[in-house]
Amino acid sequence: NAGVMQNPRHLVRRRGQEARLRCSPMKGHSHVYWYRQLPEEGLKFMVYLQKENIIDESGMPKERFSAEFPKEGPSILRIQQVVRGDSAAYFCASSKQRETYEQYFGPGTRLTVT
Amino acid sequence: LAKTTQPISMDSYEGQEVNITCSHNNIATNDYITWYQQFPSQGPRFIIQGYKTKVTNEVASLFIPADRKSSTLSLPRVSLSDTAVYYCLVGLLNTGGFKTIFGAGTRLFVKA
Hints:
The complex is a heterodimer of chains A (114) and B (112).
Chain A: E1 5-7, E2 10-13, E3 19-24, E4 31-37, E5 43-50, E6 53-56, E7 65-68, E8 75-79, E9 88-95, E10 104-105, E11 109-113
Chain B: E1 9-13, E2 18-23, E3 31-38, E4 45-50, E5 53-56, E6 61-64, E7 70-75, E8 84-92, E9 106-111
Parallel strand pairs in B: 1-9
Antiparallel strand pairs in B: 2-7, 3-4, 3-8, 5-6, 6-7, 8-9
Protein backbone atom coordinates (compact mmCIF):
# COMPACT_ATOMS: atom_id res chain seq x y z
CA ASN A 1 0.00 0.00 0.00
CA ALA A 2 1.78 3.11 -1.21
CA GLY A 3 2.06 5.98 1.20
CA VAL A 4 1.18 9.59 0.64
CA MET A 5 2.88 10.85 -2.48
CA GLN A 6 3.87 14.40 -3.18
CA ASN A 7 5.40 15.91 -6.25
CA PRO A 8 7.53 17.55 -7.09
CA ARG A 9 9.92 16.97 -4.19
CA HIS A 10 11.78 20.15 -4.98
CA LEU A 11 10.44 23.17 -6.81
CA VAL A 12 12.23 26.37 -7.70
CA ARG A 13 10.25 29.39 -8.79
CA ARG A 14 11.13 32.98 -9.51
CA ARG A 15 9.24 35.72 -7.74
CA GLY A 16 5.91 36.31 -9.42
CA GLN A 17 5.56 32.82 -10.86
CA GLU A 18 2.98 30.24 -9.85
CA ALA A 19 3.74 27.12 -7.83
CA ARG A 20 1.59 23.99 -8.01
CA LEU A 21 2.11 21.29 -5.45
CA ARG A 22 0.45 17.91 -5.79
CA CYS A 23 -0.55 15.37 -3.21
CA SER A 24 -1.94 11.88 -3.72
CA PRO A 25 -3.36 10.49 -0.45
CA MET A 26 -3.00 6.93 0.68
CA LYS A 27 -5.36 4.48 -0.93
CA GLY A 28 -8.69 4.56 0.80
CA HIS A 29 -8.07 7.95 2.43
CA SER A 30 -10.47 10.72 1.57
CA HIS A 31 -9.21 13.39 3.97
CA VAL A 32 -6.28 15.59 3.01
CA TYR A 33 -4.40 18.21 5.03
CA TRP A 34 -1.75 20.69 3.95
CA TYR A 35 0.93 22.09 6.26
CA ARG A 36 3.79 24.52 5.81
CA GLN A 37 7.07 24.27 7.67
CA LEU A 38 9.64 27.03 7.78
CA PRO A 39 13.25 26.11 8.63
CA GLU A 40 13.73 25.18 12.29
CA GLU A 41 10.02 25.59 13.02
CA GLY A 42 7.08 23.29 13.58
CA LEU A 43 4.42 22.59 11.00
CA LYS A 44 1.65 25.12 10.51
CA PHE A 45 -1.75 23.92 9.45
CA MET A 46 -3.02 25.45 6.23
CA VAL A 47 -6.11 23.65 4.98
CA TYR A 48 -8.19 20.51 5.40
CA LEU A 49 -10.08 19.07 2.46
CA GLN A 50 -12.31 16.19 1.61
CA LYS A 51 -13.18 15.17 -1.92
CA GLU A 52 -14.54 18.26 -3.70
CA ASN A 53 -14.90 20.16 -0.43
CA ILE A 54 -12.78 22.56 1.59
CA ILE A 55 -13.60 21.84 5.22
CA ASP A 56 -11.26 24.19 7.05
CA GLU A 57 -8.99 26.74 5.42
CA SER A 58 -8.38 28.87 8.47
CA GLY A 59 -4.61 28.47 8.13
CA MET A 60 -4.43 29.57 4.52
CA PRO A 61 -3.24 33.07 3.69
CA LYS A 62 -6.15 35.06 2.32
CA GLU A 63 -4.43 35.96 -0.91
CA ARG A 64 -2.48 34.01 -3.53
CA PHE A 65 -3.04 30.59 -1.92
CA SER A 66 -5.71 28.11 -2.92
CA ALA A 67 -6.28 24.39 -2.57
CA GLU A 68 -8.51 21.81 -4.14
CA PHE A 69 -9.17 18.10 -3.91
CA PRO A 70 -11.15 17.09 -6.98
CA LYS A 71 -13.27 14.00 -7.33
CA GLU A 72 -10.57 12.46 -9.48
CA GLY A 73 -6.87 13.10 -9.18
CA PRO A 74 -4.56 14.52 -6.56
CA SER A 75 -5.05 17.41 -4.23
CA ILE A 76 -3.43 20.60 -5.48
CA LEU A 77 -2.02 23.46 -3.45
CA ARG A 78 -1.55 26.49 -5.67
CA ILE A 79 0.47 29.54 -4.82
CA GLN A 80 0.15 32.42 -7.22
CA GLN A 81 2.72 35.21 -7.65
CA VAL A 82 5.16 33.59 -5.25
CA VAL A 83 7.36 35.71 -3.00
CA ARG A 84 10.56 34.83 -1.17
CA GLY A 85 8.62 34.36 2.06
CA ASP A 86 6.79 31.44 0.49
CA SER A 87 10.01 29.41 0.50
CA ALA A 88 9.31 26.51 2.82
CA ALA A 89 8.59 22.80 2.98
CA TYR A 90 4.96 21.99 2.24
CA PHE A 91 3.67 18.73 3.62
CA CYS A 92 0.51 16.92 2.76
CA ALA A 93 -1.12 14.38 5.04
CA SER A 94 -4.09 12.10 4.66
CA SER A 95 -6.34 10.15 6.95
CA LYS A 96 -8.94 7.49 6.53
CA GLN A 97 -11.32 8.83 9.09
CA ARG A 98 -12.47 12.29 9.85
CA GLU A 99 -12.13 11.96 13.60
CA THR A 100 -8.49 11.13 14.02
CA TYR A 101 -5.15 12.70 14.65
CA GLU A 102 -3.48 9.68 13.07
CA GLN A 103 -2.47 11.37 9.87
CA TYR A 104 -0.04 9.93 7.36
CA PHE A 105 2.38 12.45 5.94
CA GLY A 106 4.04 12.64 2.57
CA PRO A 107 7.73 13.46 2.05
CA GLY A 108 6.99 17.10 1.38
CA THR A 109 7.71 19.56 -1.40
CA ARG A 110 10.51 22.00 -0.81
CA LEU A 111 9.71 25.27 -2.52
CA THR A 112 12.48 27.75 -3.13
CA VAL A 113 11.62 31.17 -4.46
CA THR A 114 14.51 33.03 -6.04
CA LEU B 1 -6.56 22.73 20.90
CA ALA B 2 -4.79 22.83 24.22
CA LYS B 3 -1.41 24.52 24.28
CA THR B 4 1.51 22.20 24.92
CA THR B 5 4.97 22.81 26.36
CA GLN B 6 7.93 20.53 25.67
CA PRO B 7 11.68 20.82 26.23
CA ILE B 8 13.40 22.31 23.22
CA SER B 9 16.06 19.62 23.06
CA MET B 10 17.38 16.52 24.78
CA ASP B 11 20.54 14.47 24.50
CA SER B 12 20.89 10.76 25.08
CA TYR B 13 23.18 7.83 24.36
CA GLU B 14 22.50 4.67 22.47
CA GLY B 15 20.83 1.99 24.53
CA GLN B 16 19.33 4.39 27.07
CA GLU B 17 15.67 4.91 27.76
CA VAL B 18 14.47 8.39 26.85
CA ASN B 19 11.49 10.08 28.43
CA ILE B 20 10.09 13.27 26.89
CA THR B 21 7.51 15.07 28.95
CA CYS B 22 4.84 17.35 27.57
CA SER B 23 2.80 19.77 29.69
CA HIS B 24 -0.78 20.51 28.74
CA ASN B 25 -2.36 22.20 31.72
CA ASN B 26 -5.47 23.29 29.83
CA ILE B 27 -6.34 19.89 28.44
CA ALA B 28 -10.08 19.43 28.09
CA THR B 29 -12.10 16.43 29.15
CA ASN B 30 -12.49 15.07 25.63
CA ASP B 31 -8.95 15.81 24.44
CA TYR B 32 -6.59 13.06 23.35
CA ILE B 33 -2.79 13.18 23.43
CA THR B 34 -0.85 12.33 20.29
CA TRP B 35 2.87 12.15 19.55
CA TYR B 36 4.59 12.45 16.19
CA GLN B 37 8.20 11.92 15.14
CA GLN B 38 9.90 13.85 12.35
CA PHE B 39 13.24 13.06 10.77
CA PRO B 40 15.12 15.74 8.82
CA SER B 41 13.68 16.36 5.36
CA GLN B 42 10.73 14.04 6.01
CA GLY B 43 7.13 14.42 7.02
CA PRO B 44 6.05 13.64 10.59
CA ARG B 45 5.19 10.08 11.48
CA PHE B 46 2.46 9.14 13.94
CA ILE B 47 3.94 7.35 16.96
CA ILE B 48 1.29 6.90 19.60
CA GLN B 49 -1.96 8.26 20.96
CA GLY B 50 -3.69 7.97 24.31
CA TYR B 51 -6.32 9.36 26.62
CA LYS B 52 -5.31 8.20 30.10
CA THR B 53 -3.05 5.84 32.04
CA LYS B 54 -0.65 3.97 29.80
CA VAL B 55 -0.53 3.05 26.15
CA THR B 56 2.17 0.89 24.61
CA ASN B 57 2.93 -0.12 21.05
CA GLU B 58 5.91 -1.54 19.23
CA VAL B 59 7.61 1.84 19.08
CA ALA B 60 6.97 3.62 22.37
CA SER B 61 4.96 3.94 25.54
CA LEU B 62 2.84 6.86 26.59
CA PHE B 63 2.27 7.58 30.26
CA ILE B 64 -0.56 9.88 31.28
CA PRO B 65 -1.16 10.68 34.96
CA ALA B 66 -4.61 10.84 36.44
CA ASP B 67 -4.93 14.63 36.13
CA ARG B 68 -3.86 14.42 32.46
CA LYS B 69 -2.06 17.76 32.68
CA SER B 70 1.09 16.19 31.34
CA SER B 71 2.19 13.13 29.42
CA THR B 72 5.47 11.33 28.93
CA LEU B 73 6.63 9.64 25.78
CA SER B 74 9.03 6.83 26.61
CA LEU B 75 11.41 5.43 24.01
CA PRO B 76 13.10 2.24 25.19
CA ARG B 77 16.74 1.65 24.32
CA VAL B 78 17.19 4.42 21.76
CA SER B 79 19.50 4.09 18.80
CA LEU B 80 21.18 6.68 16.61
CA SER B 81 18.26 6.43 14.20
CA ASP B 82 15.91 7.78 16.87
CA THR B 83 17.50 11.20 16.48
CA ALA B 84 14.54 13.31 15.41
CA VAL B 85 12.08 15.96 16.50
CA TYR B 86 9.20 14.72 18.64
CA TYR B 87 5.92 16.63 18.71
CA CYS B 88 3.23 16.43 21.36
CA LEU B 89 -0.28 17.37 20.26
CA VAL B 90 -3.41 17.65 22.34
CA GLY B 91 -6.85 18.00 20.92
CA LEU B 92 -10.33 16.70 20.56
CA LEU B 93 -10.51 13.51 18.60
CA ASN B 94 -13.93 13.90 17.04
CA THR B 95 -14.40 17.53 16.35
CA GLY B 96 -14.39 19.94 13.47
CA GLY B 97 -11.00 21.12 14.63
CA PHE B 98 -8.99 18.88 12.33
CA LYS B 99 -6.22 21.41 12.01
CA THR B 100 -3.56 19.55 13.93
CA ILE B 101 -1.42 22.11 15.72
CA PHE B 102 2.26 21.29 15.91
CA GLY B 103 4.48 23.20 18.32
CA ALA B 104 8.24 23.50 18.02
CA GLY B 105 8.71 19.97 19.34
CA THR B 106 11.63 18.39 21.19
CA ARG B 107 14.83 17.76 19.28
CA LEU B 108 16.31 14.49 20.50
CA PHE B 109 20.00 13.85 19.81
CA VAL B 110 21.17 10.28 20.33
CA LYS B 111 24.92 9.89 20.60
CA ALA B 112 27.06 6.79 20.16
